[in-house]
Amino acid sequence: MMFFSIILAVVTLLLSILYKPSEFNTDALLEQTVSPPRVLLLTAHPDDECFFFAPTILALRRSSLSPEIFSLCLSSGNADGIGEQRKGELVRSLDILGVEKDNRWIIEHPQLQDNITQQWDAEIIAQVLRPFVIEHHITSVLTFDIKGISLHPNHFSLPLGVSYLIKSLSSSSHISVPRLFSLVTVPVLPKYAGLPSAILTRLGISQAFLAFEPTVDSLPVFISGISDYLTTARAILAHDSQMVWFRYLCMMFSRYMWVNEWVEFKSQNA
């Protein structure tokens, strides 16, 4: 009986740690010289926004800096011929996550099609992205890193495309250049140790303990609370066409349901 009481106490303590969301160094993600900061989430496919980026979206909506959040998805996810259905699912997901209807777009481009074997061309990504960044005065672009979380080539094409755009904008004196931040890909063990991984992060456990590759000090970190997790789950369930068995496992075990760490992306030639 005492054993079960101890277990219950420990579980209660751990859940209380994650009852409320928390953030660390998050102001580094936002351009504070512009009010409000204007943040663009760049994704490759419908459902990326909730499977990977939801902790950040939900935290930014609470930020005291009141950033304006935009979403640009570069394909309809039409690999299986259900692109139109997936567009509707993305709309419902972004409704749940709280991205305004006028601030979100889905691109259909013949050379930016959902394909698990194809890396997208950086110059084409930059061409597609350019008018959105300029017209809406985007100050920060958030996207995948060069490992793409899941090693999907469409994912890791995105930071290269944004980097290409930033280089081209830098040559123009009258256009403001956004900063680029990439979501850190973690190794397999912490990637699928969702709730425990989130608790350890909340407690300040070092990256080295979790076998992270070294990045930089003071990463911007967003950690969802229980309410945020449930909101993320609702957004995922809006993607009816994608809800096969392993998606439910991702909902249960993925670190990205709970934690987002960001690093500013610097091109090698910058």
Description:
The structure is a single chain. The protein is an alpha/beta fold and 270 residues long. It is built from eleven helices and eight strands. The chain has an eight-stranded mixed sheet, with helices on both faces. α4 packs antiparallel against α10. The radius of gyration is 19 Å and the shape is globular. The termini are far apart. About 3% of the residues have low confidence.
Could you give a quick summary of the protein structure above?
The protein is α/β, with parallel strands linked by helices. It has helices at 2-17, 48-51, 54-62, 83-97, 122-135, 148-151, 153-170, 188-191, 194-202, 226-237, 245-253, and strands spanning 22-24, 38-43, 68-73, 104-106, 140-144, 179-183, 221-223, 259-264.
Q: How many beta-strand segments?
A: 8
Principal-axis shape: globular
| Residue fraction in strands | 5-15%
Terminal CA distance: 62 Å
Helices, by number, come to: 11
Structural class: alpha/beta
For the biggest β-sheet, the strand order reads 1-7-8-6-5-2-3-4
> H/E series, N to C?
HEEHHEHEHEHHEHHEHHE
Task: Outline the biggest β-sheet.
Answer: 8 strands, mixed
Integer-rounded radius of gyration: 19 Å
